[in-house]
Amino acid sequence: MKMDILVACEESGVVRDAFIQQGHNALSCDLLPTSSPGPHYRGDVFNIINDGWDLMIAHPPCTFLSVSGAQWFYHPDDKHLPTEKRRRHPKYPNRHENRADAIDFFMRLAEADIPRIAIENPVCVMSSHWRKPDQIIQPYEYGDPFKKTTCLWLKGLPALTPTNVVKPEIVTYGDGSRFSADYGFHKGGGARSKTYQGIANAMAQQWGLSWL
Asked: Which of 18, 147, 164, 205 is most solvent-facing, going by the fewest CB within 10 Å?
C-alpha cells in the first residue's frame, strides 16, 4: 500500500526521494526551491499540512533551538552573572524572540493532525521545553562514517534500527583538535544539515512499512 508522505523543511529531496524509491507518494516542502528535481511544494508547510498525509517527517530549522547556539543569547561580559541578570547579546538582541518563534514552529509540527510523525533536530532546547527525544541516532549507524548526533521525536512510529554500523572517520587538525571527517566541510559553510543517505534509506525502508 502506498503512503502519502510529507517531508517538511527539506529542500535537498534526500528523504523524499528515498520514500519515492520505496513506492510511496512523497512531497518535500520548503521555503526554498528543491535542489533535486522531484515533487516539491515551495511555501509555508502549514498551507498543506492538513491535506490528509499518512506520515510527516519534519526537519525544523535548528538555528535558534540548538544548545550549541546558547552562547549567543547573553552578553559575553556577563558570564559570571546568574542567567536572569545577564544582558542580551549586543549583536543578537532578538535571539530570545527568535527562539520562542522556533519553539512555536516545532510544536505546531508536533501537534499536527497526522497519525505518524517524526521530527528531527540536533540536541536542542525541546528536550526541556517539551520532552526528551524518543531516539538519538548517528550517521555511522547507517553506513555513513560520520558523527552527527541526531534526535528524533516520534509519534506512531517505531524507533529506527541501525542498518550498517561503521567506524566514524576522524580528522586531526594542526592544533591537535579532532573532529568528525565532515567537520571541515561544515566549517567551510557546507550544508551539513542535509540528511545522510543511510538515515534517509532507513526511514523509508522501516517507516515505509509502518502502515502494516
From this structure: 164
Cell of 130: 517539551
The alpha carbon of 136 is separated from its chain's Cα centroid by a whole number of angstroms, namely 12
Among residues 145, 134, 128, the alpha carbon closest in space to that of 179 is found at 145
CATH topology assigned to domain 4-207: Rossmann fold (3.40.50)
Sign (positive/negative) of CA torsion 50, 51, 54, 58?
negative
What is the spatial distance between Cα 37 and Cα 18, in angstroms, rounded to a whole number? 13
Strand runs labelled E in the chain: 4-8, 25-30, 40-42, 55-58, 117-121, 135-137, 150-155, 170-172, 178-180
pLDDT tens digits for range 34-77: 999 999 999 999 999 999 999 999 999 988 787 665 666 666 67
pTM: 0.84
Q: Are strands 25-30 and 4-8 parallel, antiparallel or unpaired?
A: parallel
Q: Which three cell numbers stand for residue 166?
A: 561503521
Beta-strand relationship, 135-137 and 150-155: antiparallel
What residue segments make up the domains of the chain, in order of their start? 4-207
